[in-house]
Amino acid sequence: MFQNNTLRLNLPANTSVLRILIVEDDPMMQLGLEQSLMAHPQLEIVGQAEDGYLGVQAALKLKPDLVVMDIGLPRLDGIAATQQIKAALPETHVVMLTSHQTDTEIIAALSSGADAYCIKGASVERLLSAIAAAVEGATYLDPQVARRVIDNLKPPSPSGNAANLSGRELEVLKLMVEGLSNPEIAQKLYLSPNTVKTHVRGIMNKLSVDDRVQAAVVALRSGLV
């Protein structure tokens, strides 16, 4: 299951308590998730559901900040449930936590509006990174599936001012490619979160991309990192 120990959750500074809904049909996984997440004072489990239909109903009633969602759910799968939740509650973040790793399911999950994609069996630290990234507005891909997503994307054109990236921007870009959130990058490089945000904006402007995932794709395809 998950091993918790004393891992720290790096949420943005303005985040108080994050209200979480768990949608998972495996009772043991549901229990493991609840115990792991409840160990962190910034996280509050406000509800659980064992199928996609009940998950949507619970989300509409509870209006959680974030939903941890499985894909292979009874009655309504996690992809369809995510689409319905995002349509009704666009501010609610969704982290897919699943054993499904086919190309079709990965792309469909991201297309449904999911903010993060994690693989079951990964460390709780990876799940916490996904949660922090989603809350920050970033897209998180588990390293096990990131390369496959990149390979399925249309090769981007490394236009713009990629050659003009500063040394610090290249450091930030490398950590973005590794899936770190802004607070984690700030901690690793001993920078303030606002400084990291400025670097991220500068990187995206110079690479002529709209989000972090596109920036990572350009970086990997162009050999920038």
Description:
Keywords: DNA-binding, Phosphoprotein. GO terms for molecular function: DNA binding. Residues 19-135 form the Response regulatory domain. This protein is an alpha/beta fold. It has ten helices and six strands. A six-stranded parallel beta sheet has the order 2-1-3-4-5-6, sandwiched between helices. Helix 1 links the parallel strand 1 and strand 2. Helix 7 (167-177) crosses helix 9 (193-207) and helix 7 packs across helix 10. The chain is globular. 42% of the residues are buried. Residues 1-7 have low confidence and may be disordered.
What coarse outline follows from CA principal-axis ratios? globular
Helix tally equals: 10
Low-confidence stretches: 1-7
Approximate helicity band: 40-55%
Mean pLDDT, as a whole number?
Answer: 83
One letter per element, helices H and strands E, the order comes to EHEHEHEHEHEHHHHH
Computed Rg = 17 Å
The main β sheet shows up as: 6 strands, parallel
Class by alpha and beta content: alpha/beta
Number of strands: 6
User: What is the distance, rounded to the nearest whole angstrom, between the alpha carbons of the first and last residues?
Assistant: 33 Å
Strand content: 5-15%
Q: Looking across the biggest beta sheet, what order are the strands in?
A: 2-1-3-4-5-6
Compact summary:
By secondary structure, the protein is an alpha/beta fold. It is built from ten helices and six strands; from the N terminus they run βαβαβαβαβαβααααα.
